[in-house]
Amino acid sequence: MLALLRMAVIAALLALAASARADETCMSPYIPKVTGREDYVYVWTLGVEGVGDGSDKLVTIGTDGKVVSSVSVGGRHEAHHADFNDDRRYLWAGGLDDSMLYIFDVAADPAHPKLAKTITSFTTDSGGVVGPHTFYALPGRMMISGLSNAKDKGGRTALVEYNNDAKYVQTIWLPDGAEYGYDVRVEPRLNRMLTSSFTGWNNYMTEFGKVVADPEAMKHFGSTMVVWDFHARKPIQTLQVPGAPLEVRWALQPRHNYAFTTTALTSKIWLVEQKDDGTFAASAVADIADPKQTPLPVDISLSADDRFLFVDTFMDGTCRVYDVADPHHPKLAHTQKIGAQVNMVSQSWDGERVYFTSSLLSKWDKGGKDNEQFLKAFRWDGKKLTPIFTVDFAKEGLGRPHIMRFGQDRFYKNQLYTEADAARVARHGP
Fold first, then answer.
1. pTM as predicted
2. How many domains is the chain partitioned into structurally?
């Protein structure tokens, strides 16, 4: 009996240690976890006319702040989000403007990813979906959330699935009354999926100042989140979350059945939690800065122990770190000015570093001297953010950096990929 008790304690400690070293918290739980220090930061970057080759590109940055490599895709497509498939071999990326999809082989040479395939038929495949946003790995598949549609370029949209051979599988349109889309996140323990909502092509490809000044345009932003039966891919509940709820982050600890989001237009932190009867409720639990100033929260990252929520606000270029140990009462723990503007935030696997990029959308980024374009790394000690390095993407001729993902040589050296794996996507050519 004593031996069994000791084994149970050891198992619990190992589980706790594993959770403390968890992978990027915003990634799919179906992606294999990586422990230890990252070697590379992959940055999906918007091309800028007259800057470098002017093309959208995947840029690889070393942890010393040096540019390791870049691979251009040709032209400008409004590069936005990207993520790994379920074995981390390939990185899928998309353009919000023309709905092009790009699949990069990362595993063959992690320092120098190569473009393996380009999919030009996303809108045709999906039956009219425009603006591939979130790429979310499922077993054997990639789920892609759309932002718009080809019929009216408005906010009605869908979820689209491809298999790992890059072949179209199915389209799942969002329900009436909650037809806007943005992020998608799954909690396998609960068989639940959450989707959030933003706006359509007509708005996100228009200059931000014009959108804000147009009362009609401002009516066309999402105000809902949808709770889905994940396995059935069926919507079962619509939650009212006014103000365009963006990124969704499920808590990682098994005892926590909740997620966070922030609303871009009303600048609030929202808690989405499962109730005792199994249904979900959404409630605003904190204001972010002064909502009247529209700081525009754009991205969040939740620490692996569910203790800290990093919130980036684009307009004032600031990261605010909230202590969310009590998720109903977030407390502001630290504030750090990152730059004139800031967008994405990602913690390292070991929780010791936090990375930031600057670009939101090509038509929404600031102009003039405030049009800073950077990747910045900070050290996080649980109390404050301390600068490590900055990569000036404009000075390097690279463009506007958006989303980040991490790579590690050791991880790929430890994987056993067959020749069939290597040819799975590449055999079709770019």
1. 0.93
2. 1
